[in-house]
Amino acid sequence: MLGGRDRAALVAGSVALVLFVLLPQPSPPLLVERVLVTGGNGYFAQHLIAKLGAADSRHAVAYTVRSVAKELHGAPATPFTVADLSTDLDGLEAAVRAFNPTVVVHAAAMSSPKQCEADPVAATRVNAPEIILDVLARLAPNAVVVYLSTEQVYRGDIGHVPYPDDAAADPRNAYGHSKLAFEQVLRARWPRHVVLRSSNMVGPRAPYTLDGKFAQWIAGKLLAENGSVSLFDDEFRSFVSVGDVVDAVDAVVGGHATLPLPSAGATLNCGGAERLSRVALGRMVARACDVDISRVAPTPAAATNMGYDSPPDLTLDSAGLAAVLGVKRQPSIMPTLRLACAEMKRAL
Q1: Has residue 334 got a pLDDT over 50?
Q2: Which pLDDT score is estimated for 21?
Q3: Which of 18, 110, 146, 225 has its CA 20 to 30 A from that of 165?
């Protein structure tokens, strides 16, 4: 028989058990994704690292750079030196083994179409580094790969309807061919992948190196004394805010386990909502910088030797961003351009 103290202890234990079952319990901490970003000192990669590594984020972030000199001072992420993603097996293995990523965002690239056209072999070697998948297969076989591809995989003839996500790829130039090559490698070898075919990005300067993109180049020309610029009026793009592309990757990183992604991987266009010629973009930059739009002059693409075959019209239908990832794009890039121009003015 139980004594008085034993009965009291049994009753207390039973009450505690009932309370544990009935009362709301603290939620377990959210799982932290471990995100490795290649090409960490690139424009897009820096914006992504700033977002994923923010104080209120639930992700741990690391990135690769080609040398210690390229490390991002002040970035909330761990740097790893990989001299060449296509050949530095030891450096890549060391990074993956040390960090153990659950998601790899492959943003490193030879991104100049002119350079790619001059050396297509190097372009394919750099832009389609199959060694990444070799290392992941051994050390992180369950990792999700997010690949930042390009609109340049499409042919871009004038008169087409905006390219949907499932449009056939038919690149005109070496850059497009090299980026498509890695898309094809992913489809053949790595079902757990998402390809984002991005348009030209606009936005604030890179947060750590302060590098700009095309919009900063235009703004710099227009903000100079009596400055002007001539831009193509017969090439069209779906210029996209860098923040929208970052949001797309963030959605994959945070929701890849629950998103309705196909078992064989997904390919999504990542463009802005507006179809713009370069001169139309230039005039938007002028308005954002409070400069007379007459200082932006139209010129035909044929008047300039680009050094590669530049597609005339790469307008994208990016409805899949909302349908698959739940990402709501900005209806216009104008607010982003205003931020970029205000930043440029402060720097003058």
Answers
A1: yes
A2: 35
A3: 110
